[in-house]
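Sharing a chain and its predicted structure for anyone who wants a worked example. Both blocks are below, sequence first, tokens second.
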Amino acid sequence: MKTRLSEADQSRVIEMAWEDRTPFDAIFQEYGLTEPDVIAFMRRCLKRKTFKNWRERVSGRKTKHLSLRTFLVGRAYCPTQYKSK
């Protein structure tokens, strides 16, 4: 990982990685983490079984990659998505 993230930013990266409609490109734009960086980060932060479940969930998921998404797939907004500090 290239940068040191605060605890709040670490929590947000994990949250964004779990979200189905948040692409890895959005995580890169926000935090400068590439997909391999996010995978390594998640491996370090999650328990082994939780990481395995996450990898199975996002592997091959078209919504996690902007280049594979159709134009019709937008990003859902959840009121609790953006935490206030």
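Comments welcome. The longest helix spans residues 7-18.
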